[in-house]
């Protein structure tokens, strides 16, 4: 086992953990965090694949840099949607009557 | 000969610095309220990071890396001190606003 | 198992703890804090994996801006609902993750089909061939740093589309604010006493951030750094200045603001159209000017990224609709 295999597995583990979180958690903020963690797991897999050769693969690194910026803009927009939604349905209190 | 002495000194400074970080973590976990936790974290962090930087500078004594380490240390020390003050003052204001609140804090597991 | 693996194992364990806490911490504020700490650990892992570009970007975006974003949003949100379901799903999450990751690891270690399929073989599969192509072409791209060359020359399309994604996110955000005047007192800062220290510290920090951002932009053509890292640092400077009230609202009605928001994408598109009409093709830079073109695109992109990100993070009614 070397560092690349370790980080590949770590990326998969983070992805799966947060996928489970995304499926079972109800709080919208936690779900948003879960989506972000899934993204981080994917980036981990990509970057550890980029590390296979002596000089790391610039193509994958560039893709991940792009992905980071896209991830934060999507997160910002989603957060504002959540806030706007919670302001709009104060009577419903965010679907509070659902049971898992 | 000079090399080995500076190496030993550098490594022992780094060990001491890491020990300070361990005590900071312990304090964060064990201390009862926000103020003493902040005290633990900022005091030992400043000293611990200073020792780490000193040790690293001894291990790599080119003036460029020494300067960089000094800058890093000063920046982290300043931001640590300011952040500690900000958190403490904000918390104090909140408690005074509640007129003798019970000192209940969230954030038990920060950086645990 | 070698001793060199020890820091990696520590970082992995730390990352898993942070991820677990960010999902399942009892208090939502703790979960957010641990998510920020997760960003810091990820930045360390990027540094460990020889990806300094990513470490810089992650430290600025993942650990810095995301933190402000979440904390800023947390004040506008109601308390968390659904406190009662959580104990049940702990074991499910743990079991699911551990079993599936172990299966993957065992597959990785004891089954060589992944090697046969070329996933882990550095010589034979497709991506390294792409990489060799990219490495061979870097001297002709106009910049020396391979990641910047890929971002702004070989795969400039991606970067252009990414600037458009930022624009779309900002456009979507504007739609959430009604065009009429309605004040939103919950989101305006009111720190009576800690304010003085905060603004004093901001006056020190913001110039440092601007200098560092400019340095990263300038350095990006030959070393790790570039438009995204510089843009997010500048955005961080704008955010702290705006939060302490040292910067007036970034009025959307100002022509300069709107121009700087679209400057990156517009300039990029202009270059693309010019190369398509007079040059060798869409976004194929003429060799002699490619370095200059890349730098100018990066400068405009930095400006756009900085303004757009700061608006996305802290933009309010008065910033976006006045």
UniProtKB/TrEMBL annotation, chain A:
It is found in: Membrane. The keyword Disulfide bond does not apply. It is a multi-pass membrane protein. Keywords: Membrane, Transmembrane, Transmembrane helix. One of its GO terms (cellular component) is membrane. The chain crosses the membrane at residues 6-25, 32-50, 62-83. This is NADH:quinone oxidoreductase/Mrp antiporter membrane subunit domain-containing protein. It comes from marine sediment metagenome.
From TrEMBL, chain B:
Keywords: Membrane, Transmembrane, Transmembrane helix. The chain crosses the membrane at residues 12-32, 67-88. The keyword Membrane applies. InterPro entries: PhaG_MnhG_YufB. One of its GO terms (molecular function) is sodium:proton antiporter activity. The keyword Zinc does not apply. This is Na+/H+ antiporter subunit. It comes from marine sediment metagenome. The lineage of its organism: unclassified sequences, metagenomes, ecological metagenomes.
UniProtKB/TrEMBL annotation, chain C:
The chain crosses the membrane at residues 6-25, 32-49, 55-77, 89-110, 160-177, 198-218, 224-243, 255-279, 291-314. It is a multi-pass membrane protein. It holds the Pfam family MbhD. Residues 199-313 form the Na+/H+ antiporter MnhB subunit-related protein domain. Keywords: Cell membrane, Membrane, Transmembrane, Transmembrane helix. It is found in: Cell membrane. One of its GO terms (cellular component) is plasma membrane. The keyword Glycosyltransferase does not apply. Residues 13-78 form the MrpA C-terminal/MbhD domain. Its main location: membrane. InterPro entries: CPA3_antiporter_subunitB (IPR050622), MnhB (IPR007182), MrpA_C/MbhD (IPR025383). This is Na+/H+ antiporter MnhB subunit-related protein domain-containing protein. It comes from marine sediment metagenome. The lineage of its organism: unclassified sequences, metagenomes, ecological metagenomes.
